[in-house]
């Protein structure tokens, strides 16, 4: 099997999981593997879309921390404008 390099960017979505507990969650579509792809995509599709985009793979750890901070704030009940999310993630966006 040939080596496949990771993609240059990772597609993600922040959504509200209305079917379970109403919390905001993130899904990193490009990182899903065969055993969890369908279930995770279905969970996100059944939720309320909030924000999506692409982050650069080479800075994904820092980007995921920034996304995590946004999700924590949303789950605490803060109203966060899309423009503020874009500012938070600006240095990681692909």
Task: Report on the architecture of this protein.
By secondary structure, the protein is α+β, with helices and mostly antiparallel strands. It has one domain (about 15-90). About 35% of the residues lie in helices and about 25% in strands. The protein contains 3 helices and 3 strands. The chain has helices at about 35-45, 60-75, 80-90, and strands at about 10-15, 25-30, 50-55. Strands 2-1-3 form a 3-stranded antiparallel β-sheet, with helices on both faces. About 10% of the residues are buried. The mean pLDDT is about 90.
Lay out the secondary structure.
Layout: E1 9-16, E2 24-28, H1 37-45, E3 48-56, H2 60-75, H3 82-89
Antiparallel strand pairs: 1-2, 1-3
Question: Which structural category do the helix and sheet elements fall into?
Answer: alpha+beta
Poorly predicted tracts of residues: none
Portion of residues in helices?
Answer: 25-40%
Helix segment count? 3
* Number of DSSP strand runs: 3
Neighbour order of strands in the largest sheet? 2-1-3
Q: Could you state the order of secondary-structure elements as H and E? A: EEHEHH
How many domains comprise the coordinates? 1
What sort of overall outline do the alpha carbons produce when their principal axes are compared?
flat
Average predicted confidence as pLDDT: 90
């Amino acid at each position: 099997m040939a080596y496949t390099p990771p993609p240059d960017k990772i597609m993600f979505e922040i959504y509200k999981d209305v079917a379970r507990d109403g919390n905001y969650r993130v899904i990193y579509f490009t990182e899903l593997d065969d055993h969890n792809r369908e279930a995770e995509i279905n969970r996100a599709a059944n939720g309320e879309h909030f924000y999506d985009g692409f982050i650069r793979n080479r800075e994904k750890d820092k980007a995921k921390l920034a996304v995590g901070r946004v999700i924590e704030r949303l789950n605490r009940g803060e109203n966060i404008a899309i423009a503020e999310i874009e500012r938070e993630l600006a240095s990681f966006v692909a």
